[in-house]
Automatic annotation (TrEMBL):
This is Shikimate kinase. Binds 1 Mg(2+) ion per subunit. Its EC number is 2.7.1.71. GO terms for cellular component: cytosol. PROSITE patterns: SHIKIMATE_KINASE (PS01128).
Amino acid sequence: MERVILVGLPGSGKSTIGRQLARRRELPFFDSDQVIESRLGETIRAFFAREGEKTFRDFEERVIDELTMQGSCVLATGGGAVLRSENRQRMRERGVVVYLRASPEQLMRRLRNDTKRPLLQVADPMARLQDLYEEREPLYKEVADFTFDACGSSPALLVSRVMMQL
Ligand code: S3P
C-alpha cells in the first residue's frame, strides 16, 4: 500500500505535483478541494462566503478522513487541512506526508491574480500569506515525513526528487 499525501500553502503546487506524481507512479489521484467542490456543487469560495470557515473546515475534515482511507493513491490536500489536529493525526497514521515548502514571496508571485482562494481575497494578500505562513509552517513541519522546496525546480524535476525519497 502506498499513500502519498501532499501538504503546503496555497500555490505551492500540491495539485500539479500530485497529479504528475500519481501518473508516474500509476496511482489514482485525489484532490480534496476538487472533491469538496464537486460534492457541494459550488465553488469553495462561494460556500465559504455563505457558510463561513468553520462549516467549511467541518466538511473538509470529513473529506480528508474519507480520502485518507482510500487504497494506494496520491492525495493533494487544501492548504488549511493541517489546522485541525484530527486531520494531522490521520495524515500521519495513514500515509507518507510530503510538505511542498515555499516562502510567502514566492507564493505571492504565483497567486497574484488568484480569485479562487477565499482567504486571499483581501486588501493585502501578501500580509495574509505571511500570516498563513507563520501560523502553518510549524504544522506542516509537524506532519511532514519529507519537505521539498516547491519553487526550486521545474515540476517534472520536483516529482523526480519526491519519487527518489519515497
Ligand atoms: C485554503 C486553501 C485552499 C482551499 C480553501 C482554504 C486554506 O486550497 O482548501 O480555499 O485555508 O489555505 P489550496 O491550498 O489548494 O489553495
